[in-house]
Write a structure and sequence with these properties.
144 residues, mainly alpha, 63% helix, 0% strand, elongated
Length: 144
C-alpha cells in the first residue's frame, strides 16, 4: 500500500530560495531563455544544490558578475584535475627535498642518482603545472 501524499512531502528536501539582498527588495525581472537540453542541465544543477531554479540562475549570474566564480568550459575539468595532481606531487617532492637537506646538513651523503631523480621529478611536475596553468588562463576570457 502506498504512503499518503503528506508522507512523501516530508521526505523531500526543502528547496532554498535566494536570500534577500541588503540593498532592498528585488523589483527588476530579467527573462532568460534556454533550449530543452540547456534547461535540463540547469534544472539538474539547481536540484543538486537544493535551490529553486530562478534562485540558482540568479545566484550563478551574480557570482560570475562579481567574479566570485570564474566560468570555465567543461573541458577545463581535466586541466583543473591535472593542477590538483601536480600540486600534490610538488608537495611530496618538497618533502623529499627537506629530507635531502636534513641528510646533507647532518654530514650525510646523498648519491648523485638520488639527487638527479629528485630534481627530475621536480622539473617534470613544474612543467605539468605550467602547462595546466596556461590552459586555465586561456579559458578565462577577458572582459571588455
Amino acid at each position: 500500500m502506498a504512503e499518503p501524499a503528506a508522507a512523501d512531502d516530508r521526505h523531500r528536501r526543502r528547496v532554498r530560495r535566494r536570500e534577500h539582498e541588503a540593498g532592498g527588495p528585488r523589483t527588476t525581472r530579467v527573462k532568460v531563455s534556454y533550449n530543452d537540453d540547456e534547461l535540463t542541465i540547469i534544472r539538474a544543477a539547481a536540484e543538486h544544490d537544493s535551490t529553486a531554479l530562478a534562485a540558482w540562475v540568479g545566484n550563478a549570474a551574480l557570482a560570475v558578475a562579481k567574479e566570485t566564480v570564474v566560468p570555465v568550459s567543461a573541458d577545463a575539468k581535466e586541466v583543473v584535475q591535472e593542477v590538483i595532481r601536480s600540486r600534490v606531487q610538488l608537495s611530496r617532492i618538497g618533502n623529499n627535498l627537506n629530507q635531502v637537506a636534513r641528510v646533507l646538513n647532518s654530514d650525510g651523503t646523498v648519491t648523485d642518482p638520488q639527487l638527479s631523480a629528485l630534481l627530475g621529478a621536480v622539473e617534470a611536475a613544474i612543467k605539468r603545472l605550467d602547462v595546466a596553468t596556461l590552459q586555465l588562463m586561456r579559458e578565462r576570457q577577458p572582459r571588455s
